[in-house]
């Protein structure tokens, strides 16, 4: 079975076409800077020299999906000759509320539920829905599966997922911590254990999924016990355009001072904040690092604040799990941000966590980047959410 996997982020779209008879990747691509100047699609095919590169404006994810579907049938870099060879599509879906704790085949009822969850993930669920609708229009009759970011975090205990609010708000509206990037946290924690030659059940691991959207998870014995994102993907770390943790009293203060309604406030926190809001430059960390290198103070402060928040969560989760065996970096910034990884590890020596600066000079490669004598191992593990999604898709379609 050939499965197309679509993994939509807030400003990016990763995709793979996989032959699940042997889990061979037929072609792989990445669309970056969706909705940002400089939108680009890059696609590769193993064994074929070069890349398919498409540079053109993509104002939204629907534009990006159209180019992806054209790319997978490209004569040189595509994975199939005709789009009819794609037998199933697996979609990463960010938020399923309490309606979905596992992957599901997509039907009208599921689509309705996803629409209802848009308010919980305003940056992602609309993109996920657009991806599903675009594929349904071009691939009518092809089965679609939704794989939810929230599933891996369902093992959190109540002390981790309940907020300090009246309990009836949880029972009436499902107001609780859900957590996101679950497919990534699950994959990299399992892969890190394999790299260390140990069973994941015997390890305490902190996984750092650092991208335009970012989260940290505490994985004890292979199960998530806490994570930085909450009721929506807004909570936790400072991100590309999201503010992360703030004093909740700021919200009514800003509503009054700026004359904002609920939607205006949501847009402010989700789309106008984070490093973009702090700098006024971009939501792309490469742009922020470039500006900081040229002496832009706001850019440097934004990077310092980003690093500090990651350090705070690592420290908190070490305390929560009463120790840690490994810290794992993944996702766009985590896999490629050499300086950011070094900055995060710089204040962790007291934990017995020592970075090998030479080993750290790598991008997107699966490797151990701690010193040989480091008590806490530091790993770089490129995430493979696509393979996890494809496996779930095949299991449900069959």
TrEMBL record:
The gene is ackA. It holds the Pfam family Acetate_kinase. Gene3D superfamilies: 3.30.420.40. One of its GO terms (molecular function) is acetate kinase activity. Its EC number is 2.7.2.1. ATP binds at residues 14, 209-213, 284-286, 332-336. GO terms for biological process: acetate metabolic process; acetyl-CoA biosynthetic process. This is Acetate kinase. It comes from the Bacteria. Substrate binds at residue 92. Keywords: ATP-binding, Cytoplasm, Kinase, Magnesium, Metal-binding, Nucleotide-binding, Transferase. Pathway: Metabolic intermediate biosynthesis; acetyl-CoA biosynthesis; acetyl-CoA from acetate: step 1/2. Its cofactor is Mg(2+); Mn(2+). It comes from Paraclostridium bifermentans ATCC 638 = DSM 14991.
């Amino acid at each position: 079975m050939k499965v197309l996997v679509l993994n939509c982020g807030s400003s990016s779209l990763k995709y793979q076409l996989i032959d699940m008879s042997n889990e061979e990747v037929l072609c792989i691509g990445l669309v970056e800077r969706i909705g940002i100047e400089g939108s680009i699609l890059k696609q590769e095919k193993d064994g074929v020299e070069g890349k398919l590169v498409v540079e053109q404006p993509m104002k939204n994810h629907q534009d990006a999906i159209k180019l992806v579907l054209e790319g997978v049938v490209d004569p040189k870099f595509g994975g199939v000759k005709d789009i009819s060879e794609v037998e199933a599509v697996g979609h990463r879906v960010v938020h399923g509320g309490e309606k979905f704790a596992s992957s599901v085949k997509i039907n009208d009822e599921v689509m309705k539920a996803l629409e209802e969850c848009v308010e919980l993930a305003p940056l992602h669920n609309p993109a996920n829905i657009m991806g599903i609708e675009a594929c349904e229009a071009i691939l009518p009759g092809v089965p679609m599966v939704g794989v939810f970011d929230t599933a891996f975090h369902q093992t959190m205990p109540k002390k981790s997922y309940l907020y300090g609010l009246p309990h009836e708000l949880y029972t009436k509206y499902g107001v609780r911590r859900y957590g996101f990037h679950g497919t990534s946290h699950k994959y990299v924690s399992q892969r890190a254990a394999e790299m260390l030659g140990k069973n994941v059940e015997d390890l305490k691991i902190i996984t750092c999924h650092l991208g335009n959207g970012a989260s940290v998870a505490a994985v004890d014995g292979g199960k998530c016990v806490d994570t930085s994102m909450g009721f929506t993907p807004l909570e936790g770390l400072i991100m590309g355009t999201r503010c992360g943790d703030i004093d909740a009293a700021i919200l009514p203060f800003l509503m009054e001072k700026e004359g904002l309604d609920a939607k205006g406030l949501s847009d402010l926190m989700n789309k106008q904040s984070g490093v973009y809001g702090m700098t006024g430059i971009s939501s792309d960390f490469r742009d922020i690092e470039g500006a900081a290198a040229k002496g832009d103070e706001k850019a440097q402060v934004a990077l310092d604040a980003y690093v500090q928040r990651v350090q705070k969560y690592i420290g908190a989760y070490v305390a929560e799990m009463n120790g840690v065996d490994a810290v794992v970096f993944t996702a766009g910034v985590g896999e490629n941000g050499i300086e950011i990884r070094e900055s995060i590890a710089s204040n962790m020596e007291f934990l017995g966590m020592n970075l090998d600066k030479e080993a750290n000079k790598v991008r997107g490669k699966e490797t151990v980047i701690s010193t040989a004598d480091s008590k806490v191992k530091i790993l770089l593990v490129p995430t493979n959410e696509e393979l996890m999604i494809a496996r779930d898709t095949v299991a449900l379609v069959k």
